[in-house]
Backbone:
């Protein structure tokens, strides 16, 4: 359990700190002005054909009519991430931005759902839907994420996704439940995505059912936790009275 | 549309406070916070939330032991406890709105603070008041330190007018975003209230607890250690 939660304590730069109200540009998922993100965003359109391959980046540099030497902007980064891994991370961030745009659209169906857990379920399914155009290429991309060298950054991105989902769904937990919910959504998301890779049902109907079942199984966990805590406080008062009576007797 | 949805959608265009409107209409906007500035705000909210949670539970512990024994202390403790509950609620709200991770040691802060409140109160009401003095001294100082950094390290954020042009020398009223101004106001208000608690505790014989000097110094150390830890985990 503790090991699972450790991934949520930010060490590196990838994890979000603090969501600003009056400084909205501090909250951007990808910086649209940087040259790296211009190249990478344009690369994404080649993924359905070539997969998560550095060839997509080369293609994109050609599309944009940039000189070949511009490659070094991406290859000489300080943490030595491979082009493939950068492409994968960028793709994940763009999907996360898409999810944000989706919930910011007042017309979106999302806004008619009243229950927090149903909203979680909806958001996971919405996010998984963005996998559809590249589903054939996804397993290679995912294998990139889980290599030991990339794992900590992949987990950060996964955490950012589940944090977004739990926040959009309306979570307001102030205690340990904050961690329980995010860890739960992360594990449901990963399990559902793996399920989706081998799902051959029409419109990924089985995957959607899988998500619904998993989320339903998770529902109420935060509540259980708080009940345990209240039980603890109740017993603490009893304990005080016991100690007091012992104290008085000297 | 659900309440959650309304909140999400309205967060896209935050209304600015009256002061900014007076000069520039509602078209004043603010540049990004740096990574370090964001990280500091993140820590401020996490540690203050944990601290107010602790204060809340210390008074809970004191109240549990003292309220029946000393009826005259009941309203005094209740008043301070109510203020701590308000402080704690305020930071809880900030923590969820600003999407800050709460301290992972939340259960430990609850048990520890309740324990401190109960055990000092069991020694006697003077020791309980001495505990309040110790805690509020550390917290008051801690809030002051946060205010100093919020005042000094957030001066370089650009302010833009309605055409997106940077305002070279913005007026005092719009220099800081309402978000930062209200946080500073909040912390200084809470700091003042903590210092009131300190005065109250002294009025209620905290100083008769001189033999417990070692105890209060130990509590101060514990508080400082807890602050250090809660900022990080
Ligand atoms: Fe307080
Ligand atoms: Fe206080």
Residues:
């Amino acid at each position: 359990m503790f090991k699972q939660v450790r991934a949520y304590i930010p060490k590196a730069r990838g994890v979000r700190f603090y969501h600003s109200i009056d400084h909205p540009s501090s909250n951007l998922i990808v910086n649209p002005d940087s040259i790296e993100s211009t190249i990478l965003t344009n690369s994404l359109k080649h993924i359905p054909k070539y997969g998560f391959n550095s060839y997509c980046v080369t293609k994109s540099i050609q599309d944009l009519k940039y000189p070949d030497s511009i490659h070094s902007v991406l290859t000489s980064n300080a943490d030595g991430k491979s082009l493939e891994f950068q492409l994968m991370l960028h793709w994940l961030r763009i999907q996360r931005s898409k999810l944000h745009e989706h919930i910011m659209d007042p017309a979106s169906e999302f806004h008619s759902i009243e229950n927090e857990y149903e909203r979680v379920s909806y958001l996971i399914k919405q996010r998984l839907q963005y996998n559809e155009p590249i589903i054939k290429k996804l397993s290679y991309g995912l294998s990139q994420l889980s290599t030991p060298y990339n794992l900590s950054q992949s987990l950060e991105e996964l955490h950012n996704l589940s944090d977004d989902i739990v926040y959009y769904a309306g979570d307001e937990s102030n205690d340990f439940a904050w961690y329980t919910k995010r860890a739960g959504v992360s594990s449901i998301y990963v399990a559902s995505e793996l399920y989706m890779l081998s799902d051959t049902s029409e419109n990924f109907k089985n995957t959607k059912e899988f998500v619904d079942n998993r989320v339903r199984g998770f529902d109420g966990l935060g509540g259980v936790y708080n009940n345990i805590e209240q039980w603890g406080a109740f017993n603490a008062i009893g304990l005080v009275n016991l100690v007091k009576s012992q104290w008085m007797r000297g | 549309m659900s309440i959650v949805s309304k909140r999400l959608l309205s967060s896209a265009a935050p209304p600015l406070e009256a002061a900014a409107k007076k000069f520039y209409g509602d078209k004043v906007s603010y540049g990004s916070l740096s990574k370090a500035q964001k990280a500091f705000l993140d820590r401020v909210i996490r540690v203050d939330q944990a601290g107010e949670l602790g204060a809340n539970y210390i008074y809970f512990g004191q109240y549990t032991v003292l309220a029946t024994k000393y009826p005259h202390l009941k309203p005094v403790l209740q008043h301070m406890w109510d203020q701590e509950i308000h402080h704690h609620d305020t930071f809880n709200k900030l923590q969820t709105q600003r999407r800050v991770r709460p301290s992972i040691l939340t259960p430990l802060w609850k048990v520890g603070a309740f324990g401190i409140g109960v055990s000092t109160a069991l020694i006697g009401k003077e020791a309980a008041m001495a505990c309040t003095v110790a805690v509020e001294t550390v917290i008051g100082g801690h809030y002051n330190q946060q205010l100093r950094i919020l005042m000094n390290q957030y001066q370089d954020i650009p302010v833009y007018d309605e055409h997106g042009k940077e305002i070279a020398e913005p007026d005092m009223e719009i220099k800081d975003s309402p978000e930062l101004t209200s946080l500073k106001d909040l912390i200084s208000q809470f700091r003042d209230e903590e210092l009131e608690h300190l005065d109250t505790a002294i009025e209620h014989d905290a100083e008769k607890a001189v033999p417990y000097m070692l105890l209060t110094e130990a509590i101060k150390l514990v508080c400082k250690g807890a602050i250090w830890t809660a900022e990080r985990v």
